[in-house]
Amino acid sequence: MSSNVDIGRYRTKLSDYESRYETIKFRRDDGILEMQLHTDGGPLRWGRLPHIELDEAFSFIARDRDNKVIVLTGTGAEFSGPAPDLDANRKYHSMGPEEWGELGWEAKGFHTNLLAIDVPMIAAVNGPAYRHAELPIMCDVVLASDTASFQDSAHYVGGLVPGDGVHIAFAMAMGINRARYFLLTGQVLGAQEAKEVGLVNEVLAPDKLMPRAWELARQIARQPELNRRYSRILLTEQLRRQFAELLPYGLALEGLAITAIRPKP
Predict the structure, then answer these.
(1) Using CA atoms, how far apart are residues 265 and 259, in angstroms rounded to an integer?
(2) Pick from 10, 33, 88, 187: most CB atoms within 10 A?
(3) Is the pLDDT assigned to residue 263 strictly greater than 60?
(4) What pLDDT does residue 95 have?
């Protein structure tokens, strides 16, 4: 094997992705990468664009070895939305097999690419997480503003089988009985209650949230690189195994339902 390979040529750099996305702002200081979710500078509004952007962004972040710790947060008064529309939620979702084939493929990468990040991740949940609330709880440390709340409004109560990762993440974080109730009823958990059931580690005043996230990030970043990386790998191994086993099954059942059900006249 040649010893003259220019390894740096093949390494992913922050410049490769920091200005690439419309719904993610990045800043990095001393190897701590903050990724702030937003829509037009305000709270993130979930849709196809952030879905596909996060799928790819997690992959870039995982390949950038200059990242030491990741801080994931939102913008403004909400972490992610929109809030559920109960009238809209009474409608059935319908999608053709080809459309679901593409979206389901993307949904698989969306979570597995997050779990491929092999440096510690800190979530700073700045407000209600109405949509894809599993993302922050898949991080290693979960901090929440006292204005935060957690809900799975996009799946079962929104007319979908909760099969694209929420069935795994919430069951592992809060226990299977609590998770089943949470997913089937659209339960809203406030920050303190979320802490009591195991979703959140610390609840803080809004103005203390990001300073605390960066304080912990700097503390974690002081460890040698291999300690940081191997600890993240070890502590997320159960999550990766569960996602590898149950995510394709969940997506298959979600896809069967979404491609079979048609709106009632």
Answers:
(1) 17
(2) 33
(3) no
(4) 76
pLDDT exceeds 70 at position 38? yes
Q: Which residues have C-beta within 8 Å of that of residue 202, sequence separation ≥ 6?
A: 143, 144, 195, 212
Sheet with 32-37: list strands edge to edge. 24-29, 32-37, 69-73, 121-125, 141-145, 202-204
134 catalytic per annotation: yes
Distance separating alpha carbons of residues 141 and 158, to the nearest angstrom = 28
3-class state of residue 29 by DSSP: strand
| CA-based radius of gyration for the chain | 19
Count other C-beta atoms under 10 Å from residue 263's C-beta.
Answer: 9
Cα 238 from Cα 95, distance rounded (Å): 32
Cα maximum dimension of the chain: 68
CATH class of segment(s) 14-216+225-260? alpha beta
* Cα dihedral 204/34/39/75 (nearest 10): 20
CA 16-112-136 angle, 5° bins: 85
Q: Give the active site residue among 134, 193, 196, 245.
A: 134
Helices 176-185, 166-174: axis angle to 10 degrees equals 130
pLDDT in tens, 157-186: 888 899 999 999 999 999 999 999 999 999
